[in-house]
Design goal:
Distance between the termini: 46 Å
Number of strands: 15
Structural class: alpha/beta
Order of helices and strands: EHEEHEHEEHEEHEEEHEEHEEHH
Shape: globular
Amino acid sequence: MTQKRILIVGCGQIGSRLGSKLSRAGHTVFGLRRRAMAIANGITPIQGNLLDYATLERQLPERLDGIYYILTPSQRDDNGYRDAYVTGLEHLISALAKQRLTLPRLIFVSSTAVYGQSDGQWVDEQSPTQPVRFNGERLVEAEAIAAGYAGQSIRVRFGGIYGPGREALIQRIKAGKPCQNAPPLYTNRIHEDDCVGLLAHVGELTDPDAVYLGVDNEPAAQCEVMDWLARELELPPAPRQSGINAGRRCCNARLLASGYQLQYPNYRAGYQSLLADFRRKP
């Protein structure tokens, strides 16, 4: 295996785990984040701010083979999303161009929020992206920037991410919160372990597609998932409520065709280990 020089922009939970995985595989991994002191083992820290272009240009490593752009907005509003996904990506691409070196592969982590379909229909990588909220709008804008990058770019659209420390749905059931059954609200998810595995996988593909949907094999109605979890936790089923839309079902056929094998192909497999940990908590 050829050793690569890889930069991870945004070393949060997924970025840090990915960086450690790539480092163990023999790659040289750099991690850019606002507070470089808090970074995983095996990653060379780079403290920097994507919004500070002058500093970014000086600190960006040279001769990179790959870049993963895995950011979380500092604030969950339109300005926060614009800063993280649009302005930050523009600054990064501009700084790379200034190096006048071979451009690295760019893997941009996006979200299924880019879709606006809400009648339960199936969507894939070729479906129209017509988001209905600001987060999806900014991600569509950022995806266009990534698509216009002079080097090779891949966009990965993750569904709802769950895993250790991401137990909002379990807490929702424990609190007796309702689920939507009229109409059924379809949900799409992916375990954090598969987020890490999938990103490492697409980084090694010799002839990748431009876009991949990062979801498991089974989109499921919200009440189906919550009722299953309630039974496993020996809790009453979730109360029912009506809603306006039915969501969408995301198809991962392209991801599977690329050769990636999901560790957790559906919510039942993924939640089993989480439930074991949850039951041990007081």
